[in-house]
Amino acid sequence: MVLESNHTEAAMDTCVVLCLKSPAKSKRRLAEEIGELATTAATYLWACALETIQSWSGRVVFAPADAEDARWLTNQLESDATIVIQQGENLGERINHVDTTLRAKGEINIIFIGTDCPMMEDDYLQQAATEFAYSDVVLGPAIDGGVVLMGARVAWPSLAELPWSTSSLCDALTTLCVESGFVIAKLEPRADVDSVVALHSTRNALAQDPRPARRALRQWLKQPNAAWD
Q1: Pairing of β 147-152 and β 109-113
Q2: pTM of structure
Q3: Which one of 2, 52, 181, 224 is most buried, counting C-beta atoms within 10 A?
Q4: How many domains does the structure of the chain reveal?
Q5: In this structure, what CATH number is given to the domain that contains residue 157?
Q6: CA 71, CA 143: separation in Å to the nearest integer?
Q7: How far apart are CA 229 and CA 220, in angstroms?
Q8: For each of the chain's 229 residues, which pLDDT tens digit applies?
Q9: Pick from 217, 222, 229, 164: which is nearest to 44 by CA?
Q10: Within a domain: residue 228?
Q11: Is residue 67, in this structure, part of any structural domain at all?
Q12: What is the DSSP string of the chain?
């Protein structure tokens, strides 16, 4: 009961930010391999990310990439959803902008996730939130060297110069945090989806996942298609 209470308190003290683009504008790397099917894949991945965020008992913020994505988003959500539009030339600047905006409103523990990790379990965010009791920063490494989650209880230093969308991102982010004097916690790595190979892995990895959006994604991936079979 004490452990459950601690988890609940950690969630209530933590804001989760979902960074996103509309499906039609996301997964461009995947689109190079499977064309328009990338939009369909992105739609399923969005549903999985929304499923994850809706299971969170703490505060939630949606961070669309631009005003067009924000308009798409408002058609998908309840009217009382909190939205902060990203601003900046690259993802690092965009995260810094959202982070600064939320901290100015009183948020302290803030976790950022995206829409590319359907293998993220419901308790993965909970694990991240509990780490703030001992650490300044918590990272969820991606198997390919990126990150599927990054959270902090302190303002991020400038993230603009990090090698975003590369296999060296997690290492570079770790180095930046160490140089900033932050205590870092790392979760177990998770796979993200940005290639046909990753789609194949997702189909297998979600075989026992009972969540509806995950079942729908896996069912779609099981359908015969020359793009990945």
Answers
A1: antiparallel
A2: 0.94
A3: 52
A4: 1
A5: 3.90.550.10
A6: 32
A7: 13
A8: 444 545 567 778 999 999 999 999 987 888 888 888 899 999 999 999 999 999 999 999 999 999 999 999 999 997 789 999 999 999 999 999 999 999 999 999 999 999 999 999 989 999 999 999 999 999 999 999 999 999 999 999 999 999 998 999 999 999 999 999 999 999 999 999 988 888 888 988 999 999 999 999 999 988 876 555 5
A9: 217
A10: no
A11: yes
A12: -HHHHHHHHHHHTEEEEEEE--GGGS-HHHHHHHTTHHHHHHHHHHHHHHHHHHT--SEEEEEESSHHHHHHHHTTS-TT--B----SSSHHHHHHHHHHHHHHTT--EEEEE-SS-TT--HHHHHHHHHGGGT-SEEEEEBTTSSEEEEEESS-----TTS-TTSTTHHHHHHHHHHHTT--EEE---B----SHHHHHHHHHHTTT---HHHHHHHHHHHS--TTT-
* CA distance linking residue 29 with residue 193, whole number of Å: 10
In the chain the first and final C-alpha atoms are separated, in Å, by: 48
Q: Is residue 229 part of a domain?
A: no
Q: Which structural domain, as residue segments, surrounds residue 130? A: 2-222
Length of the chain: 229
Q: Enter the tokens of residue 169.
A: 């991102």
